[in-house]
Amino acid sequence: MFFTYLPQYFYSLITNLEKIMVNERELEIVRRFQRNVYGREPDTSGLNQNHNGCAGHWLETQMGISHNANNEADLLGYEMKNHTTSGKTTFGDWSADYYIFTNNQSRLSRTQFIEIFGKPNAQKNERYSWSGEPIPTIHRPSSWNGSEMLIDENDTIKIVYNYSRDPRHNKEQIVPIRFQQENLTLASWSRAWLEPKLTNKFGQNGWFKCLQDDHGIYHKIVFGEPMSFDNWLNLVQSGVIFFDSGMYVGNARNYSLWRANNSYWDSLVVREYPPFPQED
Questions:
Q1: CB-based contact 183:165 (threshold 8 Å)
Q2: Which of 5, 85, 126, 142 has its CA 20 to 30 A from that of 67?
Q3: Which residues are paired to 5 by β-bridges?
């Protein structure tokens, strides 16, 4: 008789231990996912189909998150990330706290900045953008304008332009004489500017991500631990986290996205559901 109930006894013991180890806030998020999202495909029929984030808005609604752009964790001290098909997941859309075009002494408009240091897109009627090839990585200068990304001794991330390293054959016609110089800061993100953004979103209880299968059905929720800014900055320095700019002429939004490949996010997962905890 004892051995007949032994497996169920251990199962109950393990379940109770899981509840002790996992805090109630996480369990509440898991319950919401299980009840309102799990096994479902996003229903965006009542949403603006021209909005790229309509599926994300559906998920926010199902999880009980209000649609806002506040720089704080989404739900119960956790930052929520949605499934992505691009292979990349975003930490945040964090514009620089300094752009050369915000410096009154530069006498440079935002549009002029994009036309000087950006690139025309033939598929967009030669619309200029500061994205793609004009953007350097921490390990690779821009092949378009020669600009570089670096982190200085004050933990400020900078994109710096050196006229001597600009490979464009007609650069003297594109770049005004006053910008034909070395170590010209085009944009910078100070630690004082970035650290609260990272900490407010990811530094409280951590983060979770809702994952879909190949048919678009939500089938899993995964959790990661809180993040520190020092570790985040080290990952920028190593190239794991990168700046993915989408700034273009005609749109006032800067689209300053800081991202990492999904494989990195996968490596941070510490718990996943299902199996779902049994409710009392």
A1: no
A2: 85
A3: none
Tell me whether the omega of the peptide bond preceding residue 120 falls within 30 degrees of 0, making it cis: no
Helices (H), the chain: 2-21, 24-36, 54-63, 110-117, 171-174, 191-202, 229-238, 262-267
Q: Which long-range contacts (CB under 8 A, 24 or more apart) does 158-163 make?
A: 158/185, 158/187, 158/188, 158/189, 159/135, 159/185, 159/186, 159/187, 159/188, 159/243, 160/184, 160/185, 160/186, 161/117, 161/185, 161/186
Q: Rounded to an integer, what is the distance from CA 25 to the centroid of its chain?
A: 23
Query: CB neighbours of 196 closer than 8 A, spacing ≥ 6?
Result: 71
Half-sphere exposure (Cβ direction) of 195: Cα atoms closer than 13 Å: 11
Structure-block tokens of residue 149? 């990304």
Look at 107-111, 149-153, 274-278 and tell me which has the smallest mean pLDDT: 274-278
Residue 223 has pLDDT above 60, yes or no: yes
CA distance 240 to 237: 8
Name the residue with tokens 């004489």: 177
Q: Which residues of 197-207 are buried (b: 16+ CB within 10 A; e: fewer)?
A: bbbebbbbbbb
Tell me which residue of 248, 246, 257 sits closest to 113, measured CA to CA: 248
Token pair listed for 20:
């002790």
Cα–Cα distance between 109 and 115 in angstroms, integer?
A: 10
Q: Which amino acid is at 106?
A: S
| End-to-end CA, the chain | 25
The residues pairing with 257 across neighbouring beta strands, listed in sequence order, are 93, 244
Task: Kindly indicate the confidence band of residue 45, based on its pLDDT and cuts at 50, 70 and 90.
Answer: confident
